[in-house]
User: Fold these one by one.
Assistant:
Number 1:
Amino acid sequence: MISQTESYDLKSTFTSVTHPWFAVRVRSNHEHTAAMHLVDRGYEKFSPSYTVERRWSDRKKEIEQFLFPGYVFCRVDPQNRLPVLSAPGVVGLVGCGKIPVPIPEDEIERIRRMVQSGLLVSPWPFLEAGQTVLIERGPLTGVEGILEEVKGKCRLVVSINLLRRSISAEVDRHWVRPVKASPPVVAISTH
């Protein structure tokens, strides 16, 4: 049995300016600790999770797991990132070399909408290619993602491209419509 929860705090950042989202890399199993310290320091964080039932030989237990293990999303001023980097459990900001790369707002919003939809959401292997669809009905109306079929059921997959991680939710086939792909760019040479 899988259900989801979301850890999300509306505390404002240190300034009134809304900074971009960044993926904060954290030590293994330190997502909760790092997120708590970031909130205590006044940062807006997003650490989506879900509950999964685990079985042992003598019992069953529901365990909360993060949809993006090893990462906490946080709004950060990239010019003033030392308070984030010095938080317990934080390893660094994801980026190219020493330059942090922001996560697009629409990718965070798609993940948030899926978690809040009430549908069963779970981690999914990252996908680059596939049929891009738009959800027209149901709790995910307006969300774009990749449609996959698993065991005869349709799943909508959305991704955080920078992390190369994805999540999926089961959707009704009648809720979706294909998104028209943009025409390929053709280079014309004039000699």
Note: The longest strand covers residues 45-55.
Number 2:
Amino acid sequence: MLKRLLLSFSLLVLAAALVSCGSGGKQTGTGQYFEVFDITGKSHRSDEWIGKQPVVLNFWGTWCGPCRKEVPDLVKLYNEYAPKGIEILGLAVRDRPDKVDSFSKQYGMRWVMLMASRDIIIRYGVASGIPQTIFLDKNGREVKRFIGARPYETLKTGFEALLKDQAESR
């Protein structure tokens, strides 16, 4: 009986964590320091990017339908805003590096691909679902956050907010 109860509870927790386009949840983690591995197994620290330039954290997964849907818009936005100094960090959630590598190459996702650890998911309050896109200014402060897939025009408002913030801080 206890085993069945624990199994049921575990499945509920897992289901809640896998819900795409989650809603709400406490928003935490502005500019949190983290260490993660990229898809080649190389270790990276968040301060390689955060605190040096505007950064967009995109929590996603190759298995996530809504995530896959917004990829073409993110590719277009990356091509528009990377030359203006905004970097995207793709943080793959509950995924395999080989799948992330293959998918990102197939769809032209030329930004840094990292493997999101449980720790970073908690620190950034992403347990409510993916995709989540968090816009951090050059000082690491959260400027905007979108929970769930968003169309090009909506995502663009986040990139524009970073540019505006960058211009005001000069």
Note: Residues 2-18 form the longest helix (17 residues).
Number 3:
Amino acid sequence: MNKSVNSSLRPNPAGDWPQVDPTACIDPTAQIIGNVHIGPDVFVGPYAVIRADETDTEGRVHPVTIEAQCNIQDGVIIHALGGTSVTIGRRSSVSHGCTIHGPCTIGQGCFIGFKSVVYDAVLHDRIFVGTAAVVQSVTLQSDCSVRPATVLISNAAVEAMTGPLGSQEIQFMARVINANLKLIKGYHHKPVNSGRKPAGEWKPAPGRASVISVK
């Protein structure tokens, strides 16, 4: 991707530019800053921020890596402390409004639920994190789920506060991946206003609140 023509991409103070595979789809409102590596067929939604800019003691910035076919949805924030990194494994979904903060490793085929926070954690493959959960300072083994609104901040509590990955969760995770891969194809190949008239100025309709006037 040509960094000079994409205002979503910019360097960190250390001079590291994002490295984005040309098949990835980055919304123009997203901000990708610094030592970020985005793999093939990744979707980054509106107003997501992925920032790798804090240095270690030797002045180096460790990477944020998002592997192939992941989706980073609207309003997600991904960042890392200096000297630490973030890795999100292939075909994982980070859903609307999540915060992922390094040090953090998320394995392949995971789903991080809406508004959840993952910090200083290791999630192995096929982990389902429910809506508004907090996962911090723990290691989760593969094929487990975290219930919505759970605050999981100790390895001693993992067994009591997680369960096995169920069939409904597996189906939902696959559905989210497939939907976002389809969106990538659509955004790459279809003009924004294809098949529609362009919207005109906002004008109040008689007897109603403001609506869009289409010319």
Note: Helices lie at 158-161, 167-189.
Number 4:
Amino acid sequence: MKRAAQFAFGLRNIFALSLEALLFVLAISQMSAAQAPPPITSDATKSGSAAASFAGCYQVQLGRWWPWSFGEDTVFVTPPNRIRLLTQRGTEGFEDNGFIIRVLPPEKQAVHGIRRVWSYWTVKSTKDVDLVWTDGLTGVVLKLHKRGNDLRGSAHPHFDFPTFIPRTAHVKARKMPCEQPENTQLPHNGL
């Protein structure tokens, strides 16, 4: 009788542990499902209508990096001085994450050594936009807010290694007239 009681007690413990493990797995899967990003199509529809208000040509002024500069790496995190935000969605590389940015005047494809640099922009709200230049390892994101026709905000660099002290710079992008119609094919560009 004692063995039967021990056996029953052991089965009950195994069942309880299995039930706890199952509940844990279900809880984790529900939490990760709740954290999943929304589908790209919903962002595309939402941002497509707001993109027209940001589209156009801009003169970009980057302030001093704070708390200190990057030295030789500055080239990897400095955006072009004159850009055009197109309402055309990107289709190549990282550009498929948003709308296309092109350098003015049109230049050859920008590269860092042998790596290509992609540039794209995304609408965050009716007043906020992010401009991104990246080669997949390094680059910069300009987080900008609309003030009249101009965009103002900050630059945030990213690298393929950890940085313990984040750096930032003030950015101003002044809207300017575009010299060519938007449907003109402009070459790829970047940093």
Note: The helical segments are 2-34, 40-54.
